[in-house]
Amino acid sequence: MSEKLHPVMFAGTGSDVGKSIVAAAFCRIFLQDGYHPAPFKAQNMALNSYATPEGLEIGRAQAVQAEAAGIPCHTDMNPLLLKPQSDHTSQVILNGKPIGNKNAYDYWRCGTSDIDFRSEVCKAFDRLNTRYNPIVMEGAGSISEINLRDTDLVNLPMARHAKADVILVGDIDRGGVFASVYGSIALQTPEDRKLIKGIIINKFRGDMRLFDEGRKMLEDLCGIPVLGVIPYYKDIHIEEEDSVALAQKSFIMQQGKINIAVIMLQHLSNYTDFDSLEQDPRIHLFYTNNVDDINKADIIILPGTKSTLHDLYELRRNGCAQAIIKAHRNGASVLGICGGYQMMGVEVCDPDHVEGDIERLPGLGLLPITTTMSGEKVTRQVTCEYGSGYEIHMGETRHFGEAKPSPLLHLSDGREDGYLVDSKCMGTYLHGILDNASFVEFLLQPFADKIANANKPFDYQAFKEEQYDKLAANVRKHVDMDKLYQILKDN
């Protein structure tokens, strides 16, 4: 049995500094070194979620980190998940189950009279800590939001409870790394400052030797060792937590490849559904809500959404709905996933105002189905003839009028899922279905003549394992692992 290590928290000088990826790297490194690690983030705010084997919901980032650690994901890894519904409200998911919507002010300032969120996340950590070694914790945003210190559940208060060693991650690519690192440490209370045992500088571009002096200056300023400077990379592909860069992905059509357009919805969720397609060398995938681009695509995918009726309304308003229908009429395939599947039907109804004020909207009419929104959320992992996937959705979908059943998928528990008109028009509730090579082959088959190597399926699972190992090797090379292990073992 491996020696017990302290829990380690990778906290940040700000959002998007690379905490999630660094945590995933160390999950894989500790696994390679003979430990039994598990990820933990007390509270996550993201639309990109995942269903655990028990059919409960957590943030996708912790599911990715669990995969890097070689273990099944569990709600204890992310006991509190906030899914934004507007600029001011979020759906609150506690221990994998939705407990209602909260206004941001009420959540952060007033709390609730019936639930002690701090106690809940601490109990989840304690359970996890008895089963794994070490716990690889991730902070949220910046550790120096001192106005939120009393209500912070994720950063230094969580590290105090866990008795964790904190490693501060700073992003040098965005500039101002000296101020952000020094300021983040200086703004902590004396008690919390003692928890910060090391600094990692992330996303360095250029000759690493140019930062040697800067490294020493940071150590002298902060009195804390710089454990490593990790270079910026583009050749390692790990599923991203944030969707910020989706619209920047190239939309230029490519000859000799199957061009797949994912419709860019305002409330797009579970965008990691398409990571496997992005890595498939036969495919060029792009995100768009441009009518002309939609008309040029071979395959159009309507993705999941946190607000089906609102995004359906926007598709009709901006002309995308009509463009999708026209493109399909001209030979393009259309696949809907989750909310996108609901939109492809004849209508979407919300008589109980689960999503908002719109009670009914006509859908795209590509599938003979009707959906009625309901307050009960379905979350579960499933298997079908193509492989595995997971459901996270609200609403019940059934055949419209006299339409005959034509399921796309037959699930192992005897249920049927989705609707199949033909090989160019279909929909499903299953996220992750595109991670299964056999389903991707089915989707690509009508356009096989466009690609020379159409009969060479892409093994996405093997690809992901290779990427975790490449990530771990890159981080291991540029971080003083001996010093880190010394920190995690010291009494």
Task: Report on the architecture of this protein.
By secondary structure, this protein is an alpha/beta fold. It contains 16 helices and 26 strands. Strands 2-9-1-10-11-12 form a six-stranded parallel β-sheet, sandwiched between helices. The protein has a six-stranded mixed β-sheet with strand order 15-13-16-18-26-25. The chain has a four-stranded mixed β-sheet with strand order 3-6-7-8. Helix 1 runs parallel beside helix 2, helix 1 packs across helix 15 and helix 6 packs parallel to helix 8. It is globular, with a radius of gyration of 23 Å. The model has no long low-confidence stretch (mean pLDDT 90).
SSE arrangement:
Layout: E1 8-12, H1 19-32, E2 38-40, E3 43-45, E4 49-51, E5 57-59, H2 60-69, E6 80-84, E7 89-94, E8 97-103, H3 104-110, H4 117-131, E9 135-138, H5 156-162, E10 165-171, H6 177-186, H7 190-193, E11 196-204, H8 212-222, E12 226-231, E13 258-263, E14 268-269, H9 275-279, E15 283-288, H10 291-296, E16 299-302, E17 304-305, H11 308-317, H12 320-329, E18 333-337, H13 339-343, E19 347-349, E20 360-362, E21 369-384, E22 387-399, E23 409-410, E24 416-417, E25 419-422, E26 425-428, H14 437-444, H15 460-478, H16 481-489
Parallel strand pairs: 1-9, 1-10, 2-9, 3-6, 10-11, 11-12, 13-15, 13-16, 16-18, 18-26, 19-21
Antiparallel strand pairs: 4-5, 6-7, 7-8, 14-17, 19-20, 21-22, 23-24, 25-26
Helix pairs in contact: 1-2, 1-15, 6-8
